[in-house]
Write a structure and sequence with these properties.
mainly alpha, 155 residues, 5 helices, DinB-like, globular, two-stranded antiparallel sheet, 57% helix, DinB-like domain-containing protein
Length: 155
């Protein structure tokens, strides 16, 4: 099994951009318009409320967005035309893919959301994270071209 999947940089960032834009559109069109009671209501199967699900994602954003920012700052133009993911990255991508998710997993303790959250604050933070993630794609591609590493210059 090939554990070093290599992706075209432009395609990778297009996918990243869409992964950020889709939940942002949903937050704007759906979550902002729901009542606090609806957002805070636990799911029918006793699982987390919508607010808690968004807060769960926020905990990961708080961890990974600073790491992404630091990585971009270290290599603003990108050192390669391609993006390589290791076996661990591929594992987590498959694990979180809703189209292939057959097993329910427990969240790590530090990512389990508390009860009694303020839904409006959680949604605002979630939207901010999605906007930052979306902006990364634009910044990276702009720097990629500025530093002369576009796919055109590689020919």
């Amino acid at each position: 099994m090939d554990h070093q999947k290599e992706l075209d940089r432009t395609r990778f960032f297009d996918q990243l951009h869409e992964l950020a834009e889709q939940p942002l559109r949903q937050a704007i069109s759906v979550y902002q318009n729901l009542s606090i009671d609806t957002l805070d209501r636990p799911s029918a199967d006793g699982g987390w409320s919508m607010t808690q699900c968004l807060e769960h994602l926020n905990t990961y954003h708080r961890h990974y967005l600073p790491l992404i920012t630091t990585t971009i700052a270290k290599d603003p133009g990108g050192s390669s035309v391609n993006v390589k993911r290791g076996w661990l990255g591929n594992y987590f991508i498959r694990l979180m893919d809703p189209d292939h998710k057959a097993t329910k997993y427990k969240a790590m303790t530090k990512h389990v959301p508390a009860a009694g959250l303020h839904a409006s604050e959680v949604i605002a933070e979630f939207m901010d994270h999605q906007e930052r993630l979306s902006k990364f794609k634009n910044d990276i591609l702009k720097n990629f071209i500025l530093f002369g590493k576009s796919s055109i210059s590689q020919r």
